[in-house]
Amino acid sequence: MIDKAPSSRAPDDLKQLSRDIDRKSMMPLWERTGGMRPGSDCIAMHWHYSDIKPELLRACELITKKQAERRVLVLENEALRGTTYITNTLYAGLQIILPGEIAPSHRHTPNALRFVVEGDGAYTAVDGERLMMHPGDFIVTPNWTWHDHGNLGDGPVVWLDGLDSPFTNFLGTTFREDLTDDRQNLFRQDGDNAAAFAANMLPHDFRPASAQSPILHYPYAQTKKALEHLAATTDPHPAHGVKLRYANPATGRHPFSTMAVFMQRLPANFSGRDYRSTEGSVFCVVEGDGKLIAGEKTFEMTQHDVAVVPSWTAYRFETSTAMVIFSYSDRAGQEALGFWHDEDP
Ligand code: GTQ
User: Are 236 and 215 a contacting pair, CB within 8 Å?
Assistant: First the structure.
């Protein structure tokens, strides 16, 4: 009989087995605690812009853009200190550039997004074209495209960098390269990219070469107009208000293979329903004030504040004024791999 009852010696023998196999880099699965469940060790967190901004300005006095290459304060999840990650799959940092400065050109395999927080007159050059940045704009830096930043204005400009570097690190696929010149050759005219891809048309012979959006710049002026129109003519979703997803026109899907990107508008005095999904999300307040209640925590959010809600943590919004909130998440990657799941009661 194979399935006979263990003898009285069994508990000691079992412990001995665990010790012996440990030396051989093995472990008994039956001793694993926790088991299989959604979510991660990451925690929901909130960064007040009033805490971030003074430190960015302090960094401006202490290190030049050239020395720093990118003058960025990285928002790290408390559960992931030392990694540069805000969730297991996402990076977030706030970058500041002063008038006249240049952030030298480089390229890397992680995809990057810029969300312009404050200031005017800066540009990011991507793939041979200069894109002027205005507050509320969302800009795509597809992986392996050369990019450098500059500030032609007369005040500091701050934006949020969102990267999928945890994906490339996890997969062992992180490469980067510096350009010898600080500035890349601008072989395209201003407006070329928008003319070819952002007029609800595509060049007739366009064949997507990658999963990233061919549109590089999604101006806030357009996004705001759409949100306001929908807010005036439709009922808000009970959890999300009016929420739009930035689309890749070549696929109808997300602007990146990994990151989904959104802008939502919540009306004044909104009391949102709880929602959770397997995606981890980074939120940045564009306009207005309100609460983000994530799990047991309540964050009093105001303009330019950033918050993170990790996978499978239930959250909801309560507003005082109307609020506009930008966000990005790893939903695109989860959907592509067939793992995304949500709970919308
Ligand atoms: O501006 O190219 O926050 O390469 C991290 C890595 C910004 C950038 C970051 C980067 C950049």
Answer: no
The preferred substitution site among 113, 163, 165, 282 for testing ligand 1, maximizing ligand atoms within 8 Å of CB, is: 163
DSSP 63: S
Cβ-based neighbour number of residue 285 at 10 Å: 21
The verdict on pTM exceeding 0.70 is yes
For the Cβ of 266 lying below 6 angstroms from any atom of ligand 1, the answer is no
DSSP assignment of 87-140 equals SSS-EEEEEEE-TT-EEEEEEESS-EEEEEEE-SSEEEEETTEEEE--TT-EEE
Q: Is 163 in the pocket of ligand 1 (CB under 6 A)?
A: yes
Distance (angstroms) between ligand 1 centre and the Cα of 339 equals 28
Sorted by sequence, the CB contacts under 8 Å of residue 247 that are 6+ apart come out as 213, 253, 254, 255
* Ligand 1 lined by 150 (C-beta under 6 Å): no
Q: What is the mean pLDDT of each run of 10 residues along the chain (345 residues)?
A: 67 95 96 90 98 98 92 98 98 98 97 98 98 98 98 98 98 98 97 98 96 98 98 98 98 98 98 98 98 98 98 98 98 98 85
Ligand 1 centroid to Cα of residue 115, in Å, is: 12
